[in-house]
Amino acid sequence: MTKSPAQATSNPRMAAIHTFGHPNAATPRTNWPELNRSSPGLARSMTLPLPGTPVGLSLAQGASGVLIATWSAPAASASQGVATSYNLAFSPAGTATWTTVPGATSPFNITGLTAGSAYDVRVESINATGPGPWSATATLATAIPGPFAPNVPSIVSVAPVADGTVTKLAVAWTAPSADSTHGAATGYNLRYSPSGAGTWTTVTGVSSPATITGLNGGTAYDVQAQATNAAASPSAWSASTTASTWGATVAPGGWVPASTQTHGAAIAPNGGANLIAVAAPTAVTGGAFAWSASNTTMPTSGLIGGGADGVTNGWGQWFNAPATAGTYYLWLLAQAGGGATSGALVTGPIVVS
Predict the structure, then answer these.
(1) Residue 247 and which of 1, 64, 129, 202 are 20 to 30 A apart at CA?
(2) What is the predicted pLDDT for the residue at 13?
(3) Strand 304-308 and strand 67-72: pairing?
(4) Which of 225, 184, 223, 221 is nearest to 205 (CA)?
């Protein structure tokens, strides 16, 4: 059965036969699509989707004039292509005068910035199709070049020294914390003034605890502390802490307890102890004794009252060693009116067995 040319060329197989059998024949019409010409939808379906927005952009301070930007790749999906690179842009905060850095990788150091200034930063993903949307803006100020002055130290205690004198105050304080704008303290200064007078005397290069000497007896003093380091300026001065020196001197009497004792027994070798207390300038009305496991914290309870012992400015009492074994210190206390302690002397360690 003979087919018409139209029928022959409408069949792809017959068209091929026709073409190869007749080299000079015109190109037959077929039903095969011509890619990128007769089927543009098919070509578009082969285009890679744009990448998504980078995830979790954050900033951290580096050295002076440096910010460190960190982010993660966006997830890929049917509508969101894989990111193959990134652009980063930064601008002085709020000005939108962007400088773009192509080919940035996370983490990325943004250098050459002005120290102590805030910057806006954003990033975008790139692939073969083009860039995706910019991320939300992150903002942070660059670090100020150090060294930085330290924070203010905190005074923990100011108290008279239990060495029998009236001229000293012991001062203890805690180191200030360091942060992005304050360096660590490497040294300290103290200053003191008769309370409320504001006539300061400064003592430099001290460490905690420190003892201020050369003071007047029975006098209240304001004390402040200051931290230093390699920075040109020290910290500010701390708030004042006020304490008074002792008003009476205390010395051992003739009955000095031995360094070893038997628990619950009369104090060896004399069965008791005594002290010499002299007004300087606070009048002395009595003397007392106290056992303690501490040689720095004065006991305020368990005091053993003494009586005049016939020695000028002398006060003494018969009493026993502590009831339980251990290492103790014996405090010798001068007392003013009302039983207030006006002077103190603490012994060395006494081992009680």
Answers:
(1) 202
(2) 45
(3) unpaired
(4) 225
The whole-number pLDDT of residue 17 equals 42
Q: How far apart are CA 229 and CA 186, in angstroms?
A: 5
Domain that holds residue 30: 5-44
pLDDT, position 250:
98
* Residue 122 and residue 26 in one domain: no
Q: Quick count: other Cβ atoms within 10 Å of Cβ 46? A: 8
Nearest to 162 by CA among 320, 342, 293: 342
Q: Can you list the residues of the chain whose pLDDT is less than 50?
A: 1-10, 12-21, 28-44
Instruction: Report yes or no: 347 and 332 within 8 Å, Cβ to Cβ.
Output: yes
Domain boundary among 87, 114, 141: 141
Question: Is 118 in contact with 92 (CB distance < 8 Å)?
Answer: yes
Whether residue 270 is found in the same domain as residue 227 = no
Q: What pLDDT score was predicted for residue 26? A: 54
Residues 87 and 109 in one domain: yes
User: Does residue 49 lie in a domain region?
Assistant: no
Residues 345 and 266 in one domain: yes
In a domain, 340, yes or no: yes
Nearest to 55 by CA among 44, 70, 66: 70
Overall pTM > 0.70: no
d(CA 337, CA 112) in angstroms, rounded, equals: 71
- DSSP annotation string for 256-315: PPPSEE-TTSBPTTTSEEEEEEEESSS---EEEEEEES-SSS---SS-EEEEE-SSTTEE
CA distance 317 to 253: 11
Q: Same structural domain for residues 176 and 223?
A: yes
* Residue ending a domain, choose from 197, 224, 244: 244
Strands of 108-110's sheet in order across: 55-61, 67-72, 108-110
